[in-house]
Amino acid sequence: MSLMSRFWNTISETAESAVESVKETASDVAETVEEAAESAYDSVSETASDVAETVEEAAESAYDTAGDAVDAVDDAAESTYDAVSEGAEAVYDAASDAVDTVKEEVTEAYEDSYLGRDDAARKEVENLTPDDIQHMPTADRNKLMKELQEGWFSDEDKEATKKLFSVKYLDPEFEKIDDNNRKEMIDKFKTDPAFKEARDNWETLTEAKRVEIMQKAVDYQADAYDIPKTTIATYSNDDPTDFGYYSHRDGKLYINGHDAALKNGGFDEAIDTAVHENGHRYQATLIDKLEAGEIKEGDPLYNQAMTFKLNDTQRGFYVQPPGDTPSVDTGDEYFTQPQENHSRITGTAVQQAGIGK
User: Fold this and answer.
1) Is the full-model pTM beyond 0.85?
2) Confidence at residue 324, expressed as pLDDT on a 0 to 100 scale
């Protein structure tokens, strides 16, 4: 074998040895890497598992905590709802009670006000029959008239008052006193011969003489009814239906001295007119005493004096005679209203007594 052959053999052997050595080393490295990889995988798996368990435990803990929080919120919400509901109910009940109280107070205030009393009085009068009015106690009738007239006296109130005026009446206590006064007055007329002389000569008497006998009549009336005496003044009006009137402004009786009324009306009409108009003076005097506190509640004159006041031309509601144009202020109630009714009772009694016959 030549030197070159030995050289290549040596090189070949060396290379093979090196390859084997590299293979062995590579195999060892591969095993080492594989073991390291397996160890790393196992380590990562274990770590991942531990992390997963930790996360799962944390998630479960968070879920439990969240659930507890939700339950707590639910409980708090229910508690708040119950509290709000109870509070709302309490507020509603309190508000309802307050509203009811206000309604009651407003109703009471309205009923106590003149408007409320006025409405109640008008409704009560609407339901009254003539018999009810006739037998109603004077104080009750006066109360209705007063409540109707207080505040704004409407047309409806006037109509209701006229209904109360449509039935003639006198207070029983007053009537007893009035009957005695009237009897005393008529007795004075009958015992004075001047009245017979006047009756017998009425057609030929002068106006002054006719007025003189009328003055005597009202003087006797003043004595019997215990009122101040007054004087008669005359005017002239060619109207056979105009006999005279009374004015409380100056306290005088005004008599139409024209023959159409005074002479042609006759003696009985003249004496009737005198005591009728002086009866209005008596009524006005009672009203003055009532307002001055001289006639007090409980006095037998009190209720009728109040009735006269509520029917007075200045201090109450007085119905004027019916005319061509009907109105709420006029009507047939003129003849039956308290002041006219009382004066007509007096005048009629004198006419029926046959004075001077």
Assistant:
1) no
2) 85
